Amino acid sequence: YQRRVHxxxxxxxxxxxxxxxxxxxxxxxxxxxxAGTRIGIQTKPHxxxxxxxxxxxxxxYFFTDPSTVxxxxxQRSSVGDRLWIYKPNSxxxxxxxxxxxxxxTQDWIKGRCFITMGVHYWQNxxxxxxxxxxQPTFLLYNGGVLNGFGTVIPYFNATxxxxxxxxxxxxxxPLFISxxxxxxxxxxxxxxxxxxxxxxxxxxxxxx
Length: 208
Known about the structure:
38% strand; globular; five-stranded antiparallel sheet; mainly beta; 13 strands; eight-stranded antiparallel sheet; 1 helix
């Protein structure tokens, strides 16, 4: 791992890359605790959820209070206590930590359970959604508790390169989304996805 300059963002910790791969960058607070992760792409994204960087665009996820990341003396015994998504034009999206709380929102739409992943929730995805506005983050719940999340980019005839990206075909997309917009399974649509999990013990424990 190599430490990198944080780029355009202010006060968001110490970033690291593995073999100079910008697609996945964990970052740490002033005391060396994991504080979140950053997803990086070098192909222009389809929504304004991404922050412009000198090398491309980024999407940043916080596992702790962003205002404390660059302060010393943080006492933490776990990975974190939250999942906040930074949007450069509107601040933070505070993710529901339980499935029950997600069901009480209007923003997160319940998708399908997929063994080894969890129950998927998609942000404002319904049958009438436009793929040009598809939000890049989906949530994963296991046993009613947030156990992971993922990033999705639905380009036409293009994929995001890198060893951490998966590229599911349109034939499997209905296994994850219950209220499926027809545009998501249109010919030529190619997905790039990345999953992150908070629980250990192996993917076989994720039974939804």
